[in-house]
Design a protein that fits this description.
271 residues; mainly alpha; Four Helix Bundle (Hemerythrin (Met), subunit A); Helix Hairpins; 76% helix; 0% strand; extended
Length: 271
Amino acid sequence: MIEDIQKKVYELLESPADTNRARKAVVYALFAIIMLNVILVILETEESIYSAFTSFFQVTFLASIAIFSVEYAARLWVCTCNPKYRSPVIGRIRYATSPLALFDLLAILPFYIPLIIPFDLRILRMMRLTRVFSVLKLGRFSHAWETFTTMFRRKKEELIISTILVFIMLTLSSTAMYYIENGAQPDTFSSIPATMWWGIVTLATVGYGDVVPVTPLGKVVGGIVALSGIALFALPAGIIASGFIESVQERHSNATEMMSNNEDREINDRR
């Protein structure tokens, strides 16, 4: 009896969004609550609005915390239905430390911590603003989230290599610029770590202009680094784009294959 209820709750919370009407209703309801919380967190920072609707903000906050708490407890209870978290204790610990479960926890934790440890009211209000992390919960309702996670798993080696290349370029350019500009601008290019701010801004082609070379050689090196940054940052962008396209194509291929199999079954059943 309990196992049947557990499986039904698991299907209601963890199955694909288009499984049935009940699952759709749960997804849309949670989506609406999350978006309402994010909007209220933003509006709460406007003193005039918060003062005029204080009661509404507080009631909505408490209601949302209650719903998110029940949802988190329910997910923790039914996670053992997933073979990945089958163990009653270890499985639940593994689930609780997964990214999506941590996002769920972040949405409710700021409410419960002050009940155990007293906080200054200003810090308490700041902690309440962390409810905006509930927007991260939207990932579990999105097929795009699954596509992105699949893409990052497949392309992680290429992305790690491109990140290492960026770090190498940042280190080399910052070191070179430090030795070139330190004599002319000892306060601005005071050390290699301080010069790395210039390297980051230049490689990212942001160009704030707060730290710039003034020597002729420094300007030449700065130009080369800026041009290199365009190509260097295009590398991980290209990897992510290609991986995303592959994941989308695979998803469409699997969906088409599933539809084809269902049609074949219907034809066989008719026969």
